Amino acid sequence: MDPVQDTPSLPPLKYTYKGKGGVQTFRYAGPPSAEGEKPFQKDVLEKTSDDSATTFEYSKDGSLLAIVNKEGVSIIKSASGDVVNQISRLGVLHISISSGNTFLLTFERYVKDGEENLVVWNIKTGEPVRKFHQKIFTRENWPYVKWSDDETVCGHMVQNEIHFYNPSLTKVVQTMRVPNVTAFCISPAIGNSSYKIATFVPEKQGAPSVVQLVEYPRVSESLTSKSFFKANSADFFWNSTGSSLLIVSHTDVDKTGKSYYGEDGLFFLSSDGSFKNLPLSKEGPIHECVWSPDGTQFLVIYGYMPAKATLYGVDGVAKADFGSAPRNTGRFSPDGQLLIIAGFGNLLGDMDFWDTKRIKLIGKAQAHCSAYYEWSPDSKYVVTAILSPRIRVDNGYKIFDFQGNFLQEDKVNELTGVNWRPALSGVYPNVKHNFTRKDLATSNTTTTTTTSTAKYRHPNFTGNSTSLRKEDDGPRKYKTKPEPQPKYAQPANQESGQRRRGKKKEVVPEQSPTVALLAAEVQDPQKQIKELTKQLRTIAQLKDQQSNGKVMTDNQLAKIESEQSVLNQLNSLNKF
For the chain, what is the largest distance between any 2 Cα atoms, rounded to a whole number of angstroms? Predict the structure, then answer.
């Protein structure tokens, strides 16, 4: 197979992974043309492979590859393998390249009374530009220094404030005062539109949570400010044009007692200030919320398993329903024509491939035990991976085509990450996909006519089918206008006024003190369950902090060790 060379018009596909042998980079030339031929080959530019590496990160446009090794951080041109710079910094755990490839952000473990552990470096000179102390690391807020697409806006959140720096990061030019702020994000901007800054303040001591939107650089003037309850944390999702923002709120405790993991909410905020709560048709957590590349629609996967998947327009109105299935994640292809809805993590790894225009299933695949997947930048392939340390056996990755046909598998010991080399929108032209799979024709045409398989019924189920809520498991597009309803239609089960007036009121006997006391005792296990559930959440938070490098106290370590005991108590109470 002849090596594929980089060209300005159409760069070849490459992917990089980190395994036991370090970081390796490969070129991908598609399916094999001859039997026995491998569809991939190791990159001829060996400079992009490093046996001592611990992690890596591509720049947003894919032109740079940063590799953390025993000497520090190597920054390499992904096309030629030439080293741009070598930053000598030991103990780096996480890295991020700014949107314009000017700066590199590094994070190390925090040491009390030590030097700053969050450092911004100039990639060209290799010199530090700005340093900060950062005690706690969370994936949700990384990177802690955020840039706009053109790097004209740079923000860093501190206690009760957000500091905005000039492009060279030499001084603070704007200070946004937001008491108790825990998250912020900078919107994309198209054309001459200005950047928007969204901030989140969680509810505290009876006060509601607040989402505020401002326009940079007038950070003291609020465009809109909305408050709502049931939100201890929030995730922001801007569309690619910066015109709409999705907010997924989370609570630590579900006061209804239906979930151990709190409650989720979905809110839609437009850049013009309009705000609305998006009601979801099924109770349960929000598993995924993702925009299409062009920013005109978004997918939400929500509800207890089997979860529902719904496609919404940019106005927040539902356009199509993909039905219910054990799925918890979704990804649009870079050209926006295709969509994967999958069930990874604790699910079986099933993947459904959809045509987003026709809302038609075009392929299926399974990547058992996988926890990661990603579209190639040309929208032709998908990589899935079984990653360590989540699973320490059978680590490796698989590659499928755009409709789920299996192409390649490679076993990699202690695989911790695999990524396609990214590309900006427009680098790879949109192609017309030829759907050749014939095994799905029946499932697409008989969705609405065949009888669904029998649903699970509890052994104590009484047979009253009206107590179960119907769910349509098949895909369907929503009608633009609802069908007219009769103006004065009376519900079939509603009794007439005459019968209601003539119905005698049922007499409820008064409870004796003994019965009341027994009823109070029955409620005690529920209180214990809530208390034990709260302890489990605290233990989970401590374990996350421990995995991120935080030094635990003796009391915290003892609390982590008590997890099994708490689970046993909770299981025994659930039997009641």
Answer: 90
